[in-house]
Structure formats: C-alpha cells, structure tokens
Structure prediction request, 166 residues.
Amino acid sequence: MAALLLLLLSGVGALFLACDAQEAYDKLPETYRRGVDLALEKLNSHAGIQHHFLYFRSVTKSDFEGNILGFDVSYIYHHFFLKATKCQRGIADSSACRFRNDRPLVDCAVCYKTFRGEVEQEPKPYVHCIHKPALTEEMKVGRVEHCNRMGYSSGAPTLLASTGAD
Prediction:
C-alpha cells in the first residue's frame, strides 16, 4: 500500500514539474518566447540532439524599443537556459515531458530585431547555444559584442544599455 501511494505521489510530482516548465515559458512575453523558439529550432536541427528540450529560466532580458518615425521596432536580447527532458526529440506534445537532472543545462543567448511584434530577417537573428560547462568567458563577451554590433548597425543604441524587465 505504501509503495502504491509513493508511486502515485511521484507521478503527481512529475506532472507538476512538467506543468512548471510549460508555465515558465507561457509567462514570458511573446517577444521573448519568439527568441526561445528560435533557439529550440536551431538546437533541434543538430543531428546529435536526442532529447526534447524545454525553456528552463531566464538569466538576462533586455530590450530597446525604438519607436522611430512611428515604426514599432524593438531590439531584443535574451540570455536563458534550456533543459533536457526525458522525452525524445521531435515529440509533438511536450506537456508530459519531465526535466532530466543528469544533463547539463544549455546556455543560450539570442538577439534579434522585431517589427510590429514579428522577428525581422534583417539583421539576421543571432542564436548562440552551448552546454553550460563548455561556455567560456570569451564566448560570453563575443555574444554581447555581436548583439551590440547588430543594434548599432541599424542605428540603434546598444541592447544591453537598456533597462528591460527581468
């Protein structure tokens, strides 16, 4: 009887963990979700990836809204973690996927320009994801420099100088 109760409670706990993963993603503003989707798309394009990944949490978010001449333009920078799940890559419904705790987080940084809420293809969105243990200080600096150049090339102030909500 105790084993059955323990099995039932562990299943309920797993359901809550899966719901928390989806809830964290759902709580992101739409413009940031688009960046997470870009990162997941790029990650899933690699043949070596076997597991389904989900958004785990944000590290840094910033944006610069340049309402220049009436245009609804934003430059987005989002640094976040993805986490492997126990589901296989390519699963259609990830609502029941539980996080794995035996794999390192994937550290991602994305920056892109949006116009009226849609990601623009120019300048090309930047997506850099790597397993967290392999991330170096040089890579971190390179990410920031790349995103700042992207903003400056469009005549906008630096992305990381803005004060976005976390």
Remarks:
- Residues 1-18 have pLDDT under 50 and may be disordered.
- The chain has three helices and five strands.
